[in-house]
Structure formats: C-alpha cells, structure tokens
Design goal:
By secondary structure, the protein is of the alpha+beta class. It has one domain. Helices cover 27% and strands 26% of the residues. A hairpin with a 5-residue loop joins strand 3 and strand 4. Helix 1 packs parallel to helix 4.
Length: 208
C-alpha cells in the first residue's frame, strides 16, 4: 500500500511559490530580528506565522505550508536557505510496493513541475538525474554534483529557476524529487518526496 503523508497538492505548491516569488529576499538573507515582536512583524509581511523562536526558524505560511530557514551559525545570523517542507511525500508499506512508488513518482512530478511553472515561468533547466545536460550546481549547497548524483540518483528529478530579477538579494529556486535508497531494493519499503528550496544567488554565500 502507498500512503501520501502531506495532504498537499500541486495547486498548494503554486500558491506557495506565488508568495515566495514576491519576498524581499535581501532582507531574509540578512537574518531574522531577535525580538519576538519584531520577528512577528518581519514574518507578517508575507503572511508567515513563526513556529520557533530559537535556533532554526520555522514558519507556517498563509496557505498552510511550513518553511524552515537555514542559518550560518545560530538564530539571528544570516540565512543561507529557505526550505518548503515536503510538497509531496509517498511511502510504501512494504518492499512489494517499491515499483508502485516509482510509478507514482513519475505521475506526481509533471503536475508539480507544471504548478511551479504556472507561478514562476519556465525554469532555467529541468530533467532527470541521468540527463546528459544535467547542470553542475552554481554553489555546492544547491544540489549534488555529478559524481554524487550519478552514484545516488539524487536529485532524481530537478528543476531550477533564477536568480529572478537583477536586484541584489534575489533568489535561486530549486524544485527536486528524491527517491529513497530502499526503493531500489527488494527487501525494504521505499518512498519518494518532492521538495522546494530557495538559496541566495551564486557568490553571495561567500560573504557570509
């Protein structure tokens, strides 16, 4: 049996991206304010509700998703990534369902990619892990390099956008689909996930 655990739809992803595309990323990359009132005001610009006030910041979005912000060191320090918690996650109850996981993953990806395109426009690139023209990451943190990607088939599928616009502090958006290692086995139940991450543009991390 297969179980989708997020309850989220491609339309939810499009709604999230519509908001994220309008974020003033320069202010986000600078890091959240320290005080709780200031943090709520900072989050309120985008309809976010802060869920954590220490260590790693997590917020709930107006459309029901959760975004987790990665810091360079501690809370309040510059932010180096923003990750929308799983947009779609499928798990198998047993190894006999692993082929069905791969089939369902192949069905889920086009709908989520099209939803992202409806909000963001055409990506710079999209494709599968073994594509001959799979790009190397502009920054190591964005996605796995060639050797790791070919060894682990990860990201299994990917699309990326950006940086959108020319203003400082814009963002690179990466939509990817992963397939867990047990999915390729015959003795462990596998799964697949689609997620979104947002990063500062190439080169901006080096000053953090």
């Amino acid at each position: 049996m297969l179980t989708e655990t997020t309850g989220r739809s491609p339309q939810d992803l499009a709604a999230e991206l519509t908001v994220l595309r309008g974020v003033d990323w320069a202010s986000v990359w600078a890091g959240p304010p320290q005080g709780s009132d200031e943090l709520r005001e900072w989050c309120g610009r985008y309809g976010w509700e802060p869920l954590t006030f220490d260590r790693q910041l997590r917020v709930r979005t107006a459309t029901g998703g959760e975004v987790s912000f990665g810091n360079t060191t501690v809370y309040g320090s510059p932010i180096v990534s923003a990750s929308l918690m799983a947009c779609w996650r499928l798990t198998a109850s047993g190894p006999e369902d692993n082929d069905a996981v791969l089939a369902a993953a192949s069905e889920a990806w086009p709908a989520h990619l099209q939803a992202a395109v409806s909000a963001m426009g055409a990506p710079v690139w999209h494709g599968q892990w073994d594509a001959a023209d799979f790009p190397e990451p502009p920054e190591p943190a964005f996605w796995a390099g060639r050797e790791s990607r070919l060894r682990n088939r990860s990201p299994f599928r990917m699309a990326y956008w950006g940086p959108l616009g020319e203003a400082p502090g814009q963002a690179v958006y990466v939509l990817d689909q992963s397939v867990s290692f047990p999915t390729w086995t015959q003795d462990l139940p596998g799964g697949s996930m689609i997620s979104l991450a947002v990063y500062p543009p190439e080169g901006s991390r080096r000053g953090l």
